[in-house]
Amino acid sequence: MGISLIPSIAQTPRVVGVRTVPIAPPTPTRHIGVATIPRRNHAQVRTLIQALQGEAATLDES
What we know:
mainly alpha, 1 helix, single chain
């Protein structure tokens, strides 16, 4: 027997003999940090940071 916390996206495809049980609130949280080199702050890096911030904002609203 084993117990593990994994994101729902990692639970597919279903595995025979493995049972998943949703966690009741309060659920665990994750903190994501970004470190950049200022002189190499390319457009792609700024776009990624903006996407992460946008996704975080939608999660805060729910």
